[in-house]
Each structure stands twice: as C-alpha cells, then as structure tokens.
Amino acid sequence: MEPEAPAGRSPSEGVDAAFGVTGDRPGELTAVECYLLDALERLDAAECRAIQLEAALAHSRDIGAAIGILMGLSRLTREQAFQELRRASMSRNVKLHALATQVVETGSLELF
Hints:
Layout: H1 11-19, H2 31-74, H3 78-92, H4 96-106
Helix pairs in contact: 2-3, 2-4
C-alpha cells in the first residue's frame, strides 16, 4: 500500500500535516519548514554543482588530449599548445572544448 501524501492547500500545510506541526501565525514558516526548505535548496544546489563538475571533467579530458596532440605534432610546449588552441577557438568563435574534441577526433587543428 502506497503512503498517501499529506493533504493541504500549500506545501507549507502539507509539511505541517506530515510533521504534526501547527503554526501560531498563518503564513509564517515553522522551524521545521525552514529546516526542510533549507535542506531542499542545498540539495538542489549540490545536484547542479555535480552536473557542472561532471561536464567540466569531461571537457578537461578532451582539452588535455588536444593539447597533447598539438604538442606532439607541432613540437610545442604545453603552454604554447594551449595558447594555440585558445587562439583558434576565439578566432573561429567555437567553444574551446568543442574545438578540442574535433582535434582529438581528427588529429589536426588545420581542418577548422
């Protein structure tokens, strides 16, 4: 049997019903509601941050690989290879990670 969601006209009333809390003043959040709201906001922020970090990690790997390819092909230092990739990205108006992915797939920066 599925548990039933607490009845109420607002989320606040639903939380009140679930925890058996009665507010002294209507429209104000109780301490429990404030805690739950804060916890949900922190959880949402943490989930967003995790998604951003996963994307950054994936992009970082492609950028690092592209730098290595440019270093090997053009006999550049790491900094020179990154600057070359960055210059090409800006001059072609292409995101750095997208250009890096193309370099990894084709082995060349010249095709762009």
